[in-house]
């Protein structure tokens, strides 16, 4: 009886899996200038720039390939790859895939207009057309996330982690410190650039808006903000299904 | 007289010439500037030279170095007047370092000795291992010499705590103290290990301490080993491993015998064997029947002149030795003695007793080796000891008391006598443990991955004889055991498969006895594994820097909770606010306010392949971390398929058995997982694991239990064998939804284990429930809203659990309970100024116990709690630190049905933290 149940279940599973599919998602692309709204420019490299006089805020979605090239020395050691923005060339245990680790945008602020401006990268968030919301991750969050990779266990009498793993952890941390968008004021004639990191987008996200709220462009004598602006930029991507025979069927809902 | 004058004038003339030459000769530098050969400078030691400049026939004493004669001329004893040029104290020039020369006499450098290990033979205290204090203070206990060019690279690492793994079945230590030489090219990799684990070298001062800290030893245990791999083509990597920990002494001649077979140390060989005890016992004492069935014995003595004498038969020209052991213990059966259950049969061979003397057997000092032939049957276990195999109190002990696998066990658990046979047992003291093996790894051939390993362990022994000074002539023998496994898996989509076949013999051992750990001539205490056993593969289930068990030279890990520290902060995730500097003895799921977010560990689930009731990833045992446990042979295989991107179905079978016992684990399992995050509706997770299990292999563990009043402690867990013959199903359903304001989480875990044929089992097999189960439901809801500047968060948590553990008897850790907890709380936060916040809130907990037996339980009876807390927080940057200052209070009223009156608790605090981030 048991064998029969097993066989039936197995047969059903095999039959079902015959039409198994996986999700795929292409890289993010900006919507057209007309759809972005006022004061926005869309460049050929896929970036969107918000201009307010000579203040420019530019956002560009980064692909894993670009990030691996950007940190090529840190992206070829499998699970030890120190590129904190991608999985490098490591492979997941069961599937052998290399999934997307994060959703990364390169944020550039160029201030040739105001005495100083301030953009808090931790307040940047994404909303999607299907109701999801993603907040930008802080460096502390990422540091704790990568601490798990350093191993070390319960520590016993003298907590500590293997030095080789510690170096990987700290190198990742160092890359994040160097390359994440800095949480600081940008004075006149200064530019600031860095990455803003979000959790990987769900497979069903095809249209999203990046919200950069409360960009402070004027301060009072105490340093408190008196004039702020909100910036929104829209991106889209093609999503769909890949079937075992390799055929791709797009959802076709991307606008 | 004329002749004398002539000589005088001749000498005067020569002296004048010499003086003239000296006046114009260049300075004689001696060896001070070294020797330059072909542009290279050498400072080879040349000894003192002849100083022509100083050939001055004067009687008076020299006060200056003669090689500086020219500069300082004659100098009488100095008058020391420090009126103008003040006196300066003596300076210790060792601060400037010493001058060191290499083996060939080349000057190396001026500096400090860091590490020095040299072994000289024949020589007393010829093994000299020394680490100066600079090894620790300058280099933190690790020194690396490395080089690289092109594809070739090597690194010589010397350290006290090197994390070294050759293969998990042969050598894996988080704290290897010794030398590791690693070589790597594109195709080839190699590692060479060397260590003196019996006395790995204590750091000592540069001067003195020549014998302290185990620096110099005549007797020691050395470890030599290594591994090499070669890449063949793109897919195949072959490897070979060799390890040997062997006792050695430096008083013997070099190049005698094979050192890897080990030699007896002076401590092991300081007396002759005059009494041997052979202990026969039941290898499966828990069944109480059919232990060792003892029929007959034979002792064969080999003397130093090569003759063999038996106490049962004539061998060659020698008569039968009229000597029989004193047989103690055992139950008399028809034709044999039986050691069932905890009974032990001891055969005592007293070679200095009157019976042996009257038999005119060879004297102990004339005996080269002794061998026993035992006619045995059923489930026997054989241990041998002697007057040379003692503990610290001088009592004979078994090797298995120090290293459990050092024993002879019958295969399976035969009870009908069908395995009757002669078992040959040689007697000797352990002198070496050796492992060699090969590995193969095949990568991505048609989507298949394969890895395999085969290892042979040889345990070497020698029979001691005090008058034999040549350590290689003590009679040597060895026993061997194998371990091997093959793993094969395929990565594909949607189908995947995995298979593993393995075998680890019961006596496969990666443990070696250490000689000379106490002092140079001391014997080994064979039952003391904390000081006299060296492990090739450590027990380190939590994979931290400390081995879990206590062994020589290292302290024991006092906190082991694998899997319970997912954020890797070295704190148990169920007592997250505990730290060494501020202890907390309340698990988070019981602690006011924290208990809303933290759910008790009973709600966890996972794969439990050994069916002992503990999820494998949380297991902490007291065994070396092999890939597969000792005394197991079997296979496990599964196939699976993705059912779309969110679901996965896996079907598999595990079939393994114990080799030295008649126990097995046969599991057939189906596992279904489903995980989908709906964009607007939330995330749904479903897990179901249905299995049919027949498992009577005991897998005991050590649990880390956090309970009220304890930060966490080790609690031994005896596997109750809850799946002896059972159907089991674990079902989990999780649903959570969250947005900016609302958090809604729900979990259901339902686990059922139903025994098959429970009523037909004997009473002693009915110590577990016919149906054990756990049903747990958790619902949590919180909502955050703003009321002006005040943020308010009402919270509700409902927790129901009905637990019927496998064991009928409640334990402190596992209690049969049916209880409902309802938790309501309201938290308010008010920002004050710019860096200050006031937080206040109350919490009401209602616990309803539905199980009558627990209505009077102090911990689990009905109760209600009302807790109020107020907390003031200031967070500023202060002198480079992120300063957190908190002050507050907490008041609680706890009313238990089991207590006569309600209890009130108060806590007040002012705390300052200096944040580093």
Description:
The complex is a heterodimer of chains A (255) and B (917). Chain A is α+β, with helices and mostly antiparallel strands and 255 residues long. Helices cover 21% and strands 33% of the residues of chain A. Chain A contains five helices and 15 strands. Chain A has helices at residues 2-17, 33-36, 64-70, 139-147, 163-179, and strands at residues 22-25, 29-30, 40-42, 48-52, 55-62, 103-111, 116-118, 125-128, 133-135, 185-187, 190-198, 207-219, 225-236, 239-242, 248-250. In chain A, the strands form four sheets. Chain A has a five-stranded antiparallel beta sheet with strand order 2-13-12-8-9. In chain A, strand 14 (239-242) and strand 15 (248-250) form a beta hairpin. In chain A, helix 4 packs antiparallel against helix 5. The longest helix of chain A has 17 residues, at 163-179. Chain A is globular and about 75 Å long. In chain A, 29% of the residues are buried. The model of chain A has no long low-confidence stretch (mean pLDDT 88). Chain B has 917 residues and is mainly β. Chain B is built from five helices and 47 strands. In chain B, strand 3 (98-101) and strand 4 form a beta hairpin. Chain B starts with a helix and ends with a strand. Mean pLDDT of chain B is 89; it is low at 17-24 and 205-212. The A-B interface holds A 2, 6, 9-10, 13-14, 16-17, 20-23, 94-96, 128, 130-133, 140, 144, 147-148, 150-162, 164, 202-205, 244 and B 163, 491, 493-496, 540, 542-546, 555-562, 564-570, 572, 639, 641-645, 649, 651, 668, 670, 677, 679-680, 692, 739-740, 917.
Q: Tell me the fraction of residues in β-strands of chain B, as a range.
A: over 45%
Specify Rg of chain B, calculated over alpha carbons.
Answer: 38 Å
Distance between the termini of chain B: 101 Å
Largest sheet of chain A: 5 strands, antiparallel
| Structure class of chain A | alpha+beta
Sheet with the most strands: spatial strand order of chain A: 2-13-12-8-9
Total count of helical runs of at least 4 residues of chain A: 5
Q: Strand-residue fraction of chain A?
A: 25-35%
DSSP, total strands of chain B:
47
Give the end-to-end Cα distance of chain A, rounded to a whole number of Å: 53 Å
SSE order of chain A in H/E notation?
HEEHEEEHEEEEHHEEEEEE
Q: What is the multimeric organization of the chains shown?
A: heterodimer
Largest interface: A-B, 43 and 45 residues
Largest pleated sheet of chain B: 24 strands, antiparallel
Q: Low-confidence stretches of chain B at least 5 residues in length (pLDDT < 50)? A: 17-24, 205-212
Total helical elements of chain B? 5
Helix- and strand-based class of chain B?
A: mainly beta
Low-confidence stretches of chain A: none
């Amino acid at each position: 009886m048991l064998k029969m149940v097993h066989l039936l279940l197995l047969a059903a599973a095999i039959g079902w899996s015959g039409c198994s599919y996986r999700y795929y998602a292409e890289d993010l692309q900006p919507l057209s200038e007309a759809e972005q709204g006022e004061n926005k420019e869309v460049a050929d490299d896929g970036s969107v720039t918000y201009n307010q006089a000579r203040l420019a805020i530019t956002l560009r979605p980064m692909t894993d390939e670009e990030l691996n090239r950007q940190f090529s020395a840190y992206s070829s050691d499998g699970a030890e790859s120190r590129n904190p923005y991608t999985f490098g060339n490591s492979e997941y245990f069961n599937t052998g895939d290399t999934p997307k680790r994060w959703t990364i945008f390169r944020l550039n602020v160029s201030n040739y207009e105001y005495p100083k401006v301030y953009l808090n990268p931790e307040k940047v968030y994404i909303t999607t057309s299907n109701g999801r919301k993603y907040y930008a991750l802080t460096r502390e969050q990422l540091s704790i996330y990568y601490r798990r990779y350093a191993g070390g266990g319960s520590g016993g009498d003298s907590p500590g982690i293997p030095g080789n793993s510690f170096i990987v952890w700290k190198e990742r941390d160092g890359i994040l410190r160097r390359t994440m968008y800095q949480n600081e004021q940008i004075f006149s004639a200064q530019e600031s650039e860095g990455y803003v990191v979000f959790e990987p987008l769900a497979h069903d996200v095809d249209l999203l808006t990046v919200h950069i709220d409360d960009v402070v462009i004027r301060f009072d004598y105490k340093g408190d903000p008196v004039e702020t602006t909100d910036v929104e930029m829209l991106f889209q991507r093609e999503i769909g299904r890949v079937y075992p025979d390799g055929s791709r069927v797009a959802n076709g809902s991307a606008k | 007289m004329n002749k004398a004058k002539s000589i005088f004038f001749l000498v005067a003339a020569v002296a004048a010439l010499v003086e003239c030459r000296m006046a114009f000769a260049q300075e004689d530098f001696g060896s001070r500037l070294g020797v330059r050969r072909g542009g290279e400078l050498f400072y080879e030691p040349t000894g003192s030279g002849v100083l022509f400049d100083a050939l001055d026939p004067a009687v008076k004493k020299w006060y200056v170095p003669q090689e500086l004669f020219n500069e300082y001329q004659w100098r009488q004893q100095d008058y020391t007047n420090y009126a103008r040029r003040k006196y300066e104290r003596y300076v210790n020039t060792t601060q400037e370092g010493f001058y060191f020369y290499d083996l060939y006499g080349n000057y190396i450098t001026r500096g400090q000795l860091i590490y020095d290990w040299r072994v000289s033979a024949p020589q007393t205290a010829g093994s000299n291992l020394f680490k100066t204090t600079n090894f620790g203070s300058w280099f933190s206990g690790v020194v690396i010499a490395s080089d690289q060019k092109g594809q070739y690279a090597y690194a010589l690492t010397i350290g006290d705590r090197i994390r070294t793994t050759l293969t998990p079945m042969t050598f894996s230590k988080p704290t290897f103290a010794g030398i590791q030489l690693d070589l790597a090219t594109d195709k080839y990799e190699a590692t060479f290990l060397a260590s003196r684990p019996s006395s790995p070298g204590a750091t000592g001062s540069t001067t003195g301490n020549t014998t302290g800290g185990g620096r110099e030893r005549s007797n020691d245990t050395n470890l030599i080993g290594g591994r090499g791999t070669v890449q063949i083509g793109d897919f195949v990597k072959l490897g070979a491993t060799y390890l040997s920990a062997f006792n050695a002494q430096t008083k013997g001649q070099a190049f005698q015998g094979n050192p890897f077979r080990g030699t007896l140390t002076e401590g092991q060989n300081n007396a002759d064997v005059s009494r041997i005890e052979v202990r026969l016992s039941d290898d499966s004492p828990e069944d109480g029947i059919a232990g060792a069935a003892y029929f007959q014995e034979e002792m064969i003595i080999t003397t130093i002149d090569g003759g063999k004498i038996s106490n049962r038969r004539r061998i060659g020209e020698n008569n039968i030795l009229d000597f029989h052991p004193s047989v103690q213990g055992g139950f008399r059966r028809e034709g044999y003695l039986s050691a069932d259950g905890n009974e032990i049969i001891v055969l005592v061979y007293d070679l200095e007793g009157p019976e042996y003397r009257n038999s005119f057997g060879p004297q102990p000092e004339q005996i080269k080796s002794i061998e026993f032939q035992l006619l045995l049957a059923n489930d026997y276990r054989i241990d041998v000891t002697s007057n040379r195999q003692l503990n610290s109190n001088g009592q004979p002990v078994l090797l298995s008391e120090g290293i459990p696998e050092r024993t002879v066990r019958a295969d399976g658990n035969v009870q009908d006598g069908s395995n009757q046979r002669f078992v040959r047992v040689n007697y000797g003291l352990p002198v070496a443990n050796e492992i060699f093996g090969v590995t193969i790894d095949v990568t991505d051939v048609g989507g298949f991955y394969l890895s395999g390993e085969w290892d042979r362990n040889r345990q070497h022994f020698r029979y001691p004889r005090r008058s034999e000074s040549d350590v290689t002539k003590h009679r040597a023998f060895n026993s061997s055991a194998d371990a091997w496994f093959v793993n094969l898996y395929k990565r594909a989509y949607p189908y995947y498969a995995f298979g593993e076949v393995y075998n680890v013999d019961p006596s496969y051992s990666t443990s070696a006895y250490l000689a000379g750990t106490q002092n140079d001539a001391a014997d080994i205490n064979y039952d003391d594994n904390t000081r006299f056993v060296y492990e090739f593969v450590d027990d380190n289930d939590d994979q931290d820097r400390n081995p879990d068990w206590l062994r020589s030279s290292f302290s024991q890990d006092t906190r082991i909770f694998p899997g319970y520290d997912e954020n890797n902060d070295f704190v148990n995730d169920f007592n997250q606010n505990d730290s060494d500097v501020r202890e907390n003895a309340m698990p988070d799921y019981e602690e006011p306010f924290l208990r809303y977010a933290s759910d008790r560990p009973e709600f966890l689930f996972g794969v439990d392949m050994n069916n002992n009731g503990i999820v494998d990833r949380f297991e902490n045992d007291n065994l070396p971390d092999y890939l597969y446990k000792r005394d197991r042979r079997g296979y496990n295989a599964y196939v699976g398929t993705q059912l779309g991107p969110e679901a996965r179905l896996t079907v598999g079978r595990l079939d393994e058995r114990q080799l030295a016992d008649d126990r097995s684990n046969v599991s057939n399992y189906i596992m279904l997982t489903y995980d989908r995050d709906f964009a607007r509706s939330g995330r749904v997770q479903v897990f179901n694991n249905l299995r049919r299990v027949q498992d009577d292999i005991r897998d005991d563990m050590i649990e880390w239990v956090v309970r009220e009043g304890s930060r966490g402690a080790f609690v031994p867990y005896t596997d109750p064998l809850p799946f002896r013959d059972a159907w089991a199903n674990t079902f989990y359903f999780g649903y959570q939804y969250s947005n900016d304001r609302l958090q809604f989480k729900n979990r259901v875990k339902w686990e059922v284990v139903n025994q098959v044929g429970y009523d037909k089992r004997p009473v002693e097999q009915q110590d577990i429930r016919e149906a054990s189960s756990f049903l747990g439901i958790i619902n949590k809801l919180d909502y955050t809203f703003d009321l002006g500047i005040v943020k308010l968060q009402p919270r509700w948590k409902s927790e129901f659990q009905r637990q019927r553990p496998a064991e009928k008897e409640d334990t402190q850790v596992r209690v049969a309970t049916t209880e409902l907890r309802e938790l309501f709380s309201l938290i308010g936060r008010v920002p004050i100024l710019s860096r200050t916040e006031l937080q206040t809130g109350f919490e009401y907990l209602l616990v309803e116990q539905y199980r009558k037996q627990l209505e009077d339980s102090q911990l689990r009876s009905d109760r209600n709690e009302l807790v109020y807390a107020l907390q003031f927080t200031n967070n500023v940057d202060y002198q480079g630190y992120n300063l957190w200052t908190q002050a507050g209070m907490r008041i609680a009223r706890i009313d238990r049905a089991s207590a006569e009156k309600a209890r009130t608790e108060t806590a007040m605090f002012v705390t300052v933290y200096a944040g580093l981030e």
